[in-house]
Write a structure and sequence with these properties.
- The complex is a heterotetramer of chains A (294), B (309), C (416) and D (250).
- Chain B is built from 14 helices and two strands; from the N terminus they run H-H-H-H-H-H-E-H-H-H-H-E-H-H-H-H.
- With 309 residues, chain B is mainly α.
- Chain B has a domain of 210 residues.
- The relative contact order of chain B is 0.17.
- In chain C, the strands form two sheets. In chain C, strands 7, 8, 9, 10, 11, 12, 13, 14 and 15 form a nine-stranded mixed beta sheet that branches. A six-stranded mixed beta sheet of chain C has the order 2-3-1-4-5-6.
- In chain C, helix 1 packs across helix 11 and helix 5 packs parallel to helix 6.
- The radius of gyration of chain C is 21 Å and the shape is globular.
- Chains A and C meet through helix 2, helix 5, helix 9, helix 10 and helix 11 of A and helix 2, strand 8, helix 7 and helix 8 of C.
Chain lengths: 294, 309, 416, 250
């Protein structure tokens, strides 16, 4: 264990691994966190949207979409539309009924999982890494997958974009107002209903695009949804619900804990993510950066 | 009067089932009973305490594993292993409740999920005790009062008796002063504190009691299956029982029973005829939420009342 | 190959007479179709293999017009979703409601172990696909026959090949952290180290790992190769990430019987080319039954049959052989089981016979991924004939050891 | 048995701040047994926070609270309730799906050992039911006992708030804006209810309706920005120029 830690190659590569996993998690968790913060809905379909995105990406690329980035954009739009429909047609009628929300979001995740199995079969499907970043990067004696660095960069760009959106635009101001105090936001005439749909679309789109961007690393396979959902939940709980900064830092934190944890204490591989979470919530129920009660 | 008559008729039909149903249907019915008790135990938390737990399989699994381990490794007889397993389960619930009740709402849900995942990980990894993903097998069913319950009909009767007793006691519990206090903590926790109720203690005791009944369901589970695998502790198992409670109607006595029967039926019976049964299950949940958002039992009651008036 | 057919005829003759002598009274029970239950997985993460299991079996039955040994056959399919407790209920349904005479399956070890005692109490002849070692070793089930392989049955020859043919000395192993993975890498390690090699790194990753980066980054590059003991989609994802890290060409890769199955290969690219795996089957096998089967399968489903499709097809031919021996009288369980366990058949994997524990003795192939007609295939490089689950060890001595596991045999040469 | 010199409620240097902003800042108040104290102050003066600190719903950063000479600063709300504190809420906090009677029964149950009973049914227990009806009669809600809270008027709910607190037979009763949102007629009724509370009960009340409130009170405390500005007898406080400045005269 100590020998590993003193090995600079190990440290550098695992750090980069942590960052890239964190980047992927951020794409997934940012939307989850916003949705929860604004609508108080624990959207358990979020993992399904990620998986659906990955599968849609596979099909788009097969159908001749020229590159991964376009596919991610198109796939993101597709899942955003689906998410918006789901919010409008189903979730809308369940405001305040948190048990109903659990039931329906889990129910829809069953449907999506089975639908993907039906449409795309049970085999794992690859998403090719874009040609330009396919060969590994060799810097100062370290070899590292170039694509993962792109993922980290992309996550940071998305984070900045979201930050600007939330902190610097009128829409963002309305979202913040809604997260902080919903009755007040309603009272001052913010179109809360439209805001819900927009935020849900945004979250679903990010998750779907995340699935495609994660594709070259993770592939699309049955069970991807169930693998990712707990990670999103942990990130959001740890970082604090409704907080973009929390989701950002939480994602990278989990990236580090997961990557280093499973390398250094493989015996705890199954619980490596849950133990820190138990500690954090037990002593700080609002999460590390949360303002509101979880 | 008619209510009593209905109840008596229903009970009679339940006890008479083995006279008409074949072995397969009896075994299915036994599983429904186990699931019904399990869901009823979770309902104490979800329905009456307003605490949505996504880790209730912990207690069913803990009881099953403990009982299996005690008989396989220590060679204990059922009369000894069952109470010890229950005691161990209650202890687990006491500790888990103590941790999980530091939060409410989504935090509580996540803590129960996390704690149950730790237990699941333990079942997977502590191979010396749990035999990992091979599971524990080679178990027997007990012989309560010297009566063998190896056959499908005997086991059904046994499970029926246990479940009726357990659900009866749960009904008493819910209608007791403590049950009223519990519902109070669900609706107005602050007011309950001002009225002199120790809200935390009430919730914690309920958590432990819910764990106890899940443990009883766990004993029935292990006696029925004579096998336990880490999947009994999985997130999927916890989610399934939660869905049963909510779909049937949380906070009612009949709701979780109906929900559990429905889930077992869809999963084990309809799946033989419908290839896409996972999708069907999803659509059933969707339909319930859209048309009977408070759950099957309260929703149907509302509809019947509307038709009558 | 001719030997296989001769053995087959002999076996039919011998078992046929014993049945005729001993159990004539039972013949009256022979009415109606033979009811076969297939326990598989058609939903959830294991569905890919489970669906192939159904396809392989149906292909066999269709080719014979649903008639085996002169009797009609009815097929009932149960979907366990890969959950052991569900498998048990499904099997009860198949037995108690559909009154099946025999089960083929289940797919996964967990489900097989979950139904173990039920198989015993229901006296249900079972042709297993699941690889759990002890079901035919230390805790043999008298109703259990396995025509495929135990977890380590193909890993033993792979290790032998690495040590003797490739002359490798230092290797790493990685597998899913489940009993199947443990058993496979344990078997590999034992044979590799008994032949002078050393396992210097051993990784067991949880079944649900989205990102293998952490494991790949730890891999030493001063080793001769790594053995992949994955099942399902994990080998596929590991290998893709492995290449991402530029390790292709630096570290040689070999795999167990499910690591680079045909089901996985059909979605892979050049990154898989050259990799060696050991399995009891390849769609490329040129024996007559497989030439027909693989061609028909490819024609109908547009992809090559792999491990799971071949598994049920193979079990079906074992079943047919046994049925012919007892003249179709599957109701006479004792005679049928006896026939089943003494089957010598020539199947899609070549000749098979069974040891006294009900496990197959058959050829294991070292296969290499190659591109052929535009698709990736597992070309047979070398054949280990008539491989037993005990490899070359004496059964008694083998069974005196604990079952293969995460901790046994201990890895003595690990380097941190 | 408390001596006549021991105050019913003694608060010393109580503080609580939220995110750096003090909601209550060095508050010291002493209320004698049997006294009726009115607490006034503009919105945001810290009145409700003070109540929550007295009942234990909010922990205090520093300072001490004692009840009839007993230090209760570290006790939980339910423990304080058992020592004789009862309260009402400015925002109505009732069990909306239950009957008025059941609301009162819960209040009775809170201080009874029977609350731990897990077997004997609650519904058939006539002891609780009869007492609940008596309490409802006290506030004029006897006729509505079987109705659910959702079915009765806002004014009735205000009275039920008080009835629940009365059911606890408190030694110290905290009323948080008991007249808020009521019509003129309803106010008169609630005023009567409050006036009829036995003198043995010490009363602390937050209220904005000065006409009625001053009529009910013996003494007044004026809070502003979390601090005590003036306190004393009704006449003293009303006459104090600081009161005029802060509250009455804007």
């Amino acid at each position: 264990m100590l020998a590993q830690l003193s090995n600079s190659n190990f440290l550098v590569i695992q750090t980069l691994n942590s960052l890239s996993l964190g980047g992927l998690l951020f794409l997934l968790a940012a939307g989850f966190s916003l949705i929860f913060g604004l609508m108080r809905i624990a959207n358990l379909t979020h993992g399904s949207l990620f998986m659906l995105g990955a599968y849609i990406g596979v099909s788009l690329l097969e159908a001749g979409v020229p590159n991964l980035w376009l596919a991610a954009l198109a796939g993101g739009v597709a899942t955003a539309v689906l998410g918006g429909l789901f919010e409008r047609l189903v979730l809308r009628s369940l405001a305040g009924n948190s048990q109903g929300q659990v039931l329906v979001t889990l129910g829809v995740s069953f449907i999506v999982a089975d639908l993907c199995l039906m449409l795309w079969g049970g085999d794992p499907l690859p998403i090719q890494t874009p040609e330009s970043v396919r060969s590994p990067l060799r810097v100062a004696g370290f070899t590292f997958p170039a694509y993962r660095l792109v993922v980290v960069a992309l996550a940071i760009v998305v984070a900045i974009g979201l930050y600007v959106l939330i902190e610097r635009t009128r829409l963002g101001a309305m979202i913040r107002a809604g997260v902080d105090d919903m009755p007040m936001a309603r009272a001052v005439g913010i179109p809360v209903s439209r805001l819900f749909t927009i935020v849900f679309c945004l979250g679903a789109g990010l998750a779907g695009a995340g699935g495609i961007i994660g594709g070259p690393i993770l592939s699309a396979y049955p069970g991807l949804d169930a693998d990712m959902l707990p990670l999103a939940l942990i990130v959001v709980i740890l970082g604090g619900v409704g907080s973009l900064a929390g989701a950002f830092i939480g994602s990278f934190l989990i990236g580090f804990v997961y990557t280093f944890g499973s390398a250094l204490v493989p015996d705890l591989a199954y619980v490596i993510l849950f133990l820190p979470m138990i500690l954090v919530i037990a002593f700080r129920p609002t999460g590390l950066f949360g303002r509101m009660g979880a | 009067m008619s209510r009593t008559a209905w109840l008596a008729g229903g009970l009679l039909a339940l006890f008479a089932l083995p006279l008409v149903a074949g072995e397969f249907y009896l075994n299915l019915a036994s599983q429904m009973l186990i699931a019904a008790l399990f869901a009823s135990s979770l309902n104490l938390l979800v329905g009456y305490a307003g605490l949505t737990s996504l880790g209730h399989a912990s207690f069913l699994g803990a009881a099953a594993y403990l009982s299996a381990w005690l008989s396989l490794h220590l060679g204990l007889a059922h009369w000894a292993s069952a109470p010890i397993a229950l005691a161990g389960t209650v202890l687990t619930a006491a500790v888990f409740g103590w941790i999980a009740l530091r939060a409410t709402g989504l935090g509580f849900l996540m803590l129960t999920l996390a704690l149950s995942q730790v237990l699941w990980g333990l079942a997977y990894r502590w191979v010396g005790v749990t035999d990992g993903d091979n599971g524990l097998r080679g178990l027997t069913r007990p012989e309560p009062l010297g009566v063998a319950i190896e056959s499908a009909d005997r086991f059904y009767w046994f499970a029926l008796l246990v479940c009726l007793l357990a659900i009866g006691l749960i009904a008493l519990f819910v209608r007791s002063p403590f049950g009223a206090a519990l519902r109070g903590t669900r609706d107005q926790p602050r007011r309950m504190g001002a009225l002199g109720f120790d809200v935390w203690l009430i919730r914690w005791l309920t958590f432990v009691i819910a764990g106890f009944w899940a443990g009883v369901a766990g004993l029935l589970f292990i006696w029925y299956h004579k096998y336990v695998h880490p999947s009994a502790l999985s997130l999927q198992a916890s989610a399934e029982v939660l869905l049963a409670v909510i779909a049937g109607g949380s906070g009612t006595l009949a709701g979780p029973v109906v929900g559990a029967v429905m889930v077992v039926f869809l999963k084990n019976f309809v799946s033989a005829y419908v290839e896409r049964w996972n999708m069907l299950l999803g659509f059933v949940f969707l339909a319930i939420v859209l048309f009977l958002p408070e759950g099957l039992v309260p929703g149907m009651r509302r509809l019947i009342r509307r038709v009558k008036s | 190959m001719g030997i296989g057919r001769r053995q087959f005829i002999q076996a039919t003759g011998v078992a046929g007479t014993s049945a005729a002598l001993g159990f004539s009274a039972m013949s009256r029970a022979q009415s109606g179709p033979i009811r076969i239950g297939l326990m598989t997985v058609k939903t959830g993460p294991l569905a890919s293999g489970g669906i192939d299991m159904e396809r392989g079996l149906i292909m066999y039955l269709k080719a014979r017009d649903y008639t085996l040994a002169g009797r009609k056959v009815e097929l009932f399919v149960g979907d366990s979703g890969g959950v052991p407790a569900t498998a048990r209920t499904k099997l009860q349904e198949l037995v108690e409601k559909n009154r099946i005479h025999l089960m083929i399956g289940p797919l996964d070890a967990g489900s097989a172990l979950a139904v173990d005692d039920y198989i015993r109490s229901a006296s249900l002849p079972t042709l297993s696909v699941a690889a759990a070692e002890d079901m035919t070793q230390r805790k043999p089930n008298p109703w259990f026959v396995r025509g495929t392989s135990t977890s380590s049955q193909c890993a033993h020859p792979m290790a032998d090949y690495c040590a003797k043919t490739l002359k490798w000395k230092r290797m790493a192993v990685i597998a899913d952290d489940i009993a199947y993975g443990h058993e496979m890498v344990a078997g590999f390690q034992r044979v590799f180290e008994d032949n002078g090699g050393r396992i210097v790194q051993k990784f067991l990753s949880p079944l649900a790992v989205p990102d293998y980066g952490s494991y790949i980054a730890q891999l030493k590059t001063n080793i001769d190769g790594i053995f992949l003991g994955f099942a399902g989609s994990n080998g596929f994802r590991y290998l893709r990430q492995f290449n991402e890290y530029g390790l292709r060409g630096k570290v040689q890769v070999v795999g167990g019987m499910t690591a680079l199955d045909e089901a996985v290969l059909r979605n892979m690219g050049d990154e898989a080319i050259g990799i060696l795996t050991a399995c009891w089957y390849s769609a490329e096998l040129a024996n007559p039954p497989n030439r027909t089967f693989a061609a028909d399968f490819r024609k109908e489903f547009k992809y090559d049959p792999g491990f799971y499709a071949a598994a049920t097809h193979l079990e079906a031919s074992v079943l047919e052989t046994a049925l012919q021996t007892v003249g179709g009288r599957i109701e006479d369980k004792a005679a049928f089981m006896k026939a089943l366990r003494s089957v010598k058949a020539f199947t899609v994997r070549g000749p098979v016979s069974f040891d006294t524990y009900g496990n197959v003795v058959g050829d294991v192939f070292i296969r290499q991924v190659e591109r052929k007609d535009g698709r990736l295939v597992n070309t047979v490089q070398y054949t280990y004939p008539a491989v037993s689950q005990f490899w070359t060890y004496a059964p008694q001595a083998f069974l005196a050891n604990p079952v293969y596991s995460r901790d046994w045999p201990p890895a003595r040469y690990l380097e941190s | 048995m408390t001596s006549s010199t021991t105050p019913a409620l003694a608060i010393e240097h109580l503080r609580r701040s939220f995110g750096g902003l003090p909601a209550t800042d060095d508050i010291s108040i002493s209320v004698a047994a049997g006294e009726r104290r009115l607490i006034i102050g503009p919105n945001g003066a810290g009145k409700t926070t003070l109540f929550n600190q007295i009942t234990g719903d909010i922990r205090s950063d520093s300072g001490m609270i004692s009840l009839f000479g007993e230090d209760v600063t570290r006790l939980r709300p339910d423990q304080r309730a058992h020592r004789g504190i009862a309260r009402t809420y400015q925002i109505i906090t009732l069990f909306g799906r239950d009957t008025l009677e059941h609301n009162i029964v819960l209040a009775l149950l809170g201080l009874s050992r029977a609350r731990w009973s897990m077997v004997r049914g609650l519904a058939p227990r006539s002891d609780f039911r009869d007492r609940a009806r008596d309490v409802l009669a006290q506030v004029g809600l006897r006729e509505l006992a079987e109705r659910t809270v959702a079915e009765v008027s806002y004014g009735d709910r205000r009275r039920l708030e008080i009835a629940m607190a009365l059911a606890q037979a408190p030694r110290l009763l905290l009323l948080d804006e008991p007249l808020a949102g009521l019509s003129r007629e309803e106010r008169a009724t609630v005023q009567q209810v409050i006036a009829s509370i036995p003198r043995a009960v010490t009363l602390v009340m937050i209220e904005h309706d000065m006409d009625i409130a001053l009529e009910l009170a013996d003494s007044v405390t004026l809070l502003h920005y979390g601090r005590v500005i003036v306190q004393g007898s009704r006449a003293e406080v009303v006459a104090d120029p600081r009161t005029q400045e802060v509250y009455l005269g804007h």
